[in-house]
Specification:
about 5% strand, about 375 residues, MetI-like fold, two-stranded antiparallel ribbon, mainly alpha, 3 domains
Amino acid sequence: MATSSPAAPERVVRRRMGFQRWFRELGWRHVVAFLAIAFALFPFAWIVMSSINTVDTLTTVKFLPDETTFRNFTALFEGCSWHVGVPPFTCDATTPFPLWLWNSVKIAVIASTVQLVLSALAAYSFARLRWRGRRTGLIAILLIQMFPQFLAFVALFLLLDTLEGTFGEAVQVDLWVIVLPLVIIAAILSYLAWRSDWSARTKRKSYAFGITMAVLGLITVIGPAIFDNWLGPEYGVTLFPTIGLGTHTGLVLVYLGGAVGVNTWLIKGFMDSIPTSLDEAAKVDGATEWDVFYRIVLPLTRPILIVIFILTFVGLYNEFILAQVLIRDVDQFTYATGLNLFVESEYAAKWGQLSAAAVIGTLPILLLFWALQDRIVSGLQGAVKG
């Protein structure tokens, strides 16, 4: 009996798409994307070219300069020198750009971190706890955020002026006053960890804290003998900073009330998508409300927390109006307000240095986005998928 041979597989013939059809279906999208990218990158490319141009202007300069120089970049750091301390440099120039950059990063990090902590605690209260006035509080936060912070300029100025009269002097103590109690507490904690049956993880944390405090105490003792003019009798630790006009503390306090309401709403929406069954299971096992927040809800909301931190950091890093009104000393200027000094005079404007400072000022934001780029996507996509 003859057997039939298996049928040969059919060959799929793919016709090559014509250019007109490709452009009509896909090509125009690429053209639009390239135009959008060029439109976004052209100002940055122009500033980069202006920063290395020998002609100190922005209007009559060519996009590709005939001669290039890095003099504008080196001029930003003239009069500055490294030293041991915080910040790790000193500047005697009339435009201390490194100090401005340090001030902006410091203020943005502190204000963004405190804003994030306050927003996360408030969001958990609105999302998980049930208390009278909860709905009214949510609506009140939303309504307050509708009014821009600039409307409170006069009130903020007068408030900080009043606080300057009350908290105008910083409270400082010698470093050993802070270090000695911490060393004693670390020694007691390490001894208890050694003698008790704590978990291995808790013991490791106790030992790490003890070693850190021991090293800090050792530096406090031998520091003056190794480093000149460092940790000497005049070195103190600020327990309570100065609050008022012209202080970074006052500016941070003003920033704290800026976006807490919006951030609370964003985090609350993310927390609402986390199943409440996780909370109930943890409470059955004896977890407290703080354990549920710290060990369950907070780790799951990490993507949106990172996104909010980045957005808040970028906004505060580039903030100009409030910093220009509330900060008066040149050494206390932020990055945004300090750049204004380069072009303050009409006939002595330093456009080349301004361009170089703008290029360097983008580095902290670029590094932040580069380090957390995967978290940004996951944070904007949504919450936990069941």
